C-alpha cells in the first residue's frame, strides 16, 4: 500500500486548462461516493481550488494505479483531453512533502496566503464524511493541517502576504490611479468577493455594488460595506456607471459575455471599463477583452502583482520549509509501521476471540464466582494475552521498513493462520485501512 497524488496547479497549467479541470463540490461528492468502482484506490481525498485540482490516494500499486487515478480525474471533470504536460504526480514521501507545502501555503500563487489551509480542511472533511479516508489519509491530513497551523504560528509568513483579492484591487488601482472617486461592481458573494470588497473600501472606493444569483446573499455582503445589492439580471445595466468590475462567482459558465458587453460599452460614451476576473472557471468570456475600451485581466495576470511583494516573505518561507521537513520526517517514521497494523489487528482480534470463548466456557464451571471475582478473571485473561503478544508485536515493529519485513509478515500469517479467519488476503488488504474507523 502506498501514497500517491496526481494534480495540476497554477505553476503547471494556464487558467484555461485549470478551468476545464476544476472540480465542483457536487462532482467531488459524487466521485467519492463511487470510489469503490476504481480498483486499486483504497482511500482518497480530492482538493479543488481556483488554482489547483489534486487527488491524494492510498493505492495498491503506484505504477499501475496512476492510470486509474488519472481516469478518476477525467470522470470528476468530464474531460478526457491529453493534458499530461500539465500534470504532476508524487508517491510516498514526495506526496507527503507536497501536501505539507500546500497546507503551509508554500505552494500557493500567493506565498503565505491563509485561505488554502481552510480549503485543505474542507477537502479532508468531505472525504471523511464520504467514508473514503481511513488510517493512512486520516493520519496524513491531520498532520498536514497541524503543520499548516504550526507554520502560521511559528513564522511571520502571512504578515506580509498579499491575497488574490488584494492583488486584484492593486491591478485596479494601477489602471485607474487613486480609487477615491471610483465605483465598483462585484459579481459573487463568497469569501473571495468579501475580501475584495474589504480591499476596495480600504483603498477609498466611494461606491460598491454587489450582484449574485441569490439576491439575499448579495444584500448581506453589500450591507457590510454600505453598498448596494443589484439583481443579477440587472447587473450589466448598472455597470454603465461603474469604473471596475471584479468577478468571483462559482458559476460553471461565463457570466459576462461579449454581446452584452458591447451593448454596455455603447452606452458608456467612451469611458474605459476595467474587468478583473479572479474566478476559476473564468466568469468572463476571453473575447470580452478584445472589445474597444475594455481592459480584461484574469487570475494569471495577478502573478506580476504578487511577485512585487514576494521578496519580503522568502526569509519566512525558508523557516517554514524547515518546519515542513521536520514534520515530513516525523510522519514518515510513523508510516513505516503501518504495513504491520492490519496484521497486528488481526492477530489481536483472533487472540481476543479465543480469550473470550475460553472465559465463557469457564463461567459454566465456576457458578459461585461473584461479579468482582469475574472482573478479576477477565482482567487476568486479558493481561495474559497482552503479555504473550508483546514479544511478537515488538519483533514486527522492529522489522518494519527493513529487508526482513515481508518475511515476518508471511511467518506470522502462517504461524497463526491469519488468512483463514473467514477473509481472504485480498480482502484484508482492502479492509486494513478501514480498521481505525471500526
From TrEMBL:
<feature type="binding site">
    <location>
        <begin position="49"/>
        <end position="52"/>
    </location>
    <ligand>
        <name>substrate</name>
    </ligand>
</feature>
<dbReference type="InterPro" id="IPR006151">
    <property type="entry name" value="Shikm_DH/Glu-tRNA_Rdtase"/>
</dbReference>
<keyword id="KW-0521">NADP</keyword>
<keyword id="KW-0627">Porphyrin biosynthesis</keyword>
<protein>
    <recommendedName>
        <fullName>Glutamyl-tRNA reductase</fullName>
        <ecNumber>1.2.1.70</ecNumber>
    </recommendedName>
</protein>
<feature type="binding site">
    <location>
        <position position="119"/>
    </location>
    <ligand>
        <name>substrate</name>
    </ligand>
</feature>
<keyword id="KW-0560">Oxidoreductase</keyword>
<comment type="similarity">
    <text>Belongs to the glutamyl-tRNA reductase family.</text>
</comment>
<dbReference type="Pfam" id="PF01488">
    <property type="entry name" value="Shikimate_DH"/>
</dbReference>
<dbReference type="InterPro" id="IPR015895">
    <property type="entry name" value="4pyrrol_synth_GluRdtase_N"/>
</dbReference>
<dbReference type="Pfam" id="PF00745">
    <property type="entry name" value="GlutR_dimer"/>
</dbReference>
<feature type="domain" description="Quinate/shikimate 5-dehydrogenase/glutamyl-tRNA reductase">
    <location>
        <begin position="170"/>
        <end position="305"/>
    </location>
</feature>
<feature type="binding site">
    <location>
        <begin position="188"/>
        <end position="193"/>
    </location>
    <ligand>
        <name>NADP(+)</name>
    </ligand>
</feature>
<feature type="binding site">
    <location>
        <begin position="113"/>
        <end position="115"/>
    </location>
    <ligand>
        <name>substrate</name>
    </ligand>
</feature>
<dbReference type="InterPro" id="IPR036291">
    <property type="entry name" value="NAD(P)-bd_dom_sf"/>
</dbReference>
<feature type="domain" description="Glutamyl-tRNA reductase N-terminal">
    <location>
        <begin position="6"/>
        <end position="155"/>
    </location>
</feature>
<feature type="domain" description="Tetrapyrrole biosynthesis glutamyl-tRNA reductase dimerisation">
    <location>
        <begin position="319"/>
        <end position="418"/>
    </location>
</feature>
<dbReference type="InterPro" id="IPR036343">
    <property type="entry name" value="GluRdtase_N_sf"/>
</dbReference>
<dbReference type="GO" id="GO:0008883">
    <property type="term" value="F:glutamyl-tRNA reductase activity"/>
</dbReference>
<feature type="site" description="Important for activity">
    <location>
        <position position="98"/>
    </location>
</feature>
<dbReference type="InterPro" id="IPR015896">
    <property type="entry name" value="4pyrrol_synth_GluRdtase_dimer"/>
</dbReference>
<feature type="active site" description="Nucleophile">
    <location>
        <position position="50"/>
    </location>
</feature>
<comment type="subunit">
    <text>Homodimer.</text>
</comment>
<dbReference type="InterPro" id="IPR036453">
    <property type="entry name" value="GluRdtase_dimer_dom_sf"/>
</dbReference>
<comment type="pathway">
    <text>Porphyrin-containing compound metabolism; protoporphyrin-IX biosynthesis; 5-aminolevulinate from L-glutamyl-tRNA(Glu): step 1/2.</text>
</comment>
<dbReference type="Pfam" id="PF05201">
    <property type="entry name" value="GlutR_N"/>
</dbReference>
<dbReference type="GO" id="GO:0050661">
    <property type="term" value="F:NADP binding"/>
</dbReference>
<feature type="binding site">
    <location>
        <position position="108"/>
    </location>
    <ligand>
        <name>substrate</name>
    </ligand>
</feature>
<comment type="function">
    <text>Catalyzes the NADPH-dependent reduction of glutamyl-tRNA(Glu) to glutamate 1-semialdehyde (GSA).</text>
</comment>
<dbReference type="InterPro" id="IPR000343">
    <property type="entry name" value="4pyrrol_synth_GluRdtase"/>
</dbReference>
<dbReference type="GO" id="GO:0019353">
    <property type="term" value="P:protoporphyrinogen IX biosynthetic process from glutamate"/>
</dbReference>
<dbReference type="InterPro" id="IPR018214">
    <property type="entry name" value="GluRdtase_CS"/>
</dbReference>
Amino acid at each position: 500500500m502506498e501514497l500517491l497524488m496526481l494534480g495540476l496547479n497554477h505553476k503547471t497549467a494556464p487558467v484555461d486548462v485549470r478551468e476545464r479541470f476544476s472540480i465542483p463540490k457536487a462532482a467531488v461528492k459524487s466521485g467519492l461516493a463511487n470510489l469503490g468502482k476504481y480498483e486499486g484506490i483504497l482511500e482518497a481525498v480530492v482538493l479543488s481550488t481556483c488554482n489547483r485540482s489534486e487527488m491524494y490516494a492510498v493505492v495498491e500499486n503506484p505504477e499501475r494505479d496512476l492510470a486509474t487515478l488519472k481516469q478518476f480525474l477525467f470522470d470528476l471533470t468530464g474531460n478526457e483531453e491529453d493534458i499530461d504536460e500539465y500534470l504532476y504526480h508524487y508517491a510516498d514521501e514526495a506526496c507527503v512533502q507536497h501536501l505539507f507545502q500546500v497546507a503551509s501555503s508554500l505552494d500557493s500563487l500567493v506565498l503565505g496566503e491563509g485561505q488554502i489551509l481552510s480549503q485543505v480542511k474542507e477537502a479532508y472533511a468531505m472525504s471523511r464524511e464520504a467514508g473514503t479516508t481511513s488510517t493512512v489519509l486520516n493520519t496524513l491530513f491531520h498532520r498536514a493541517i497541524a503543520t499548516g497551523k504550526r507554520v502560521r504560528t511559528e513564522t511571520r509568513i502571512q504578515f506580509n502576504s498579499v491575497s488574490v483579492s488584494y492583488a486584484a484591487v492593486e491591478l485596479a488601482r494601477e489602471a485607474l490611479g487613486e480609487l477615491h472617486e471610483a465605483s465598483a461592481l462585484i459579481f459573487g458573494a463568497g469569501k473571495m468577493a468579501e475580501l475584495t470588497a474589504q480591499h476596495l473600501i480600504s483603498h477609498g472606493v466611494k461606491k460598491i455594488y454587489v450582484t449574485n444569483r441569490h439576491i439575499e446573499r448579495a444584500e448581506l455582503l453589500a450591507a457590510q460595506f454600505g453598498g448596494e445589492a443589484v439583481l443579477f439580471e440587472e447587473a450589466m445595466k448598472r455597470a454603465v456607471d461603474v469604473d471596475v468590475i471584479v468577478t468571483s462567482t462559482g458559476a460553471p459558465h461565463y457570466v459576462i459575455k461579449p454581446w452584452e458587453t458591447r451593448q454596455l460599452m455603447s452606452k458608456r460614451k467612451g469611458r474605459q471599463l476595467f474587468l478583473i476576473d479572479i474566478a476559476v472557471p473564468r466568469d468572463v468570456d476571453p473575447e470580452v477583452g478584445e472589445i474597444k475600451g475594455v481592459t480584461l485581466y484574469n487570475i494569471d495576470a495577478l502573478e506580476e502583482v504578487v511577485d512585487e511583494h514576494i521578496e519580503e516573505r522568502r526569509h519566512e518561507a525558508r523557516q517554514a520549509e524547515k518546519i515542513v521537513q521536520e514534520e515530513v520526517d516525523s510522519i514518515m517514521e510513523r508510516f513505516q509501521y503501518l504495513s504491520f497494523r492490519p496484521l497486528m489487528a488481526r492477530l489481536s482480534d483472533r487472540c481476543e476471540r479465543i480469550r473470550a470463548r475460553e472465559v465463557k466456557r469457564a463461567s459454566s464451571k465456576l457458578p459461585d464466582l461473584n461479579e468482582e471475582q469475574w472482573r478479576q478473571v477477565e482482567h487476568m485473561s486479558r493481561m495474559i494475552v497482552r503479555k504473550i503478544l508483546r514479544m511478537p508485536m515488538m519483533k514486527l515493529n522492529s522489522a518494519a521498513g527493513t529487508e526482513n519485513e515481508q518475511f515476518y509478515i508471511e511467518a506470522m500469517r502462517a504461524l497463526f493462520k491469519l488468512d483463514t479467519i473467514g477473509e481472504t488476503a485480498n480482502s484484508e488488504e482492502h479492509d486494513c485501512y478501514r480498521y481505525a474507523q471500526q
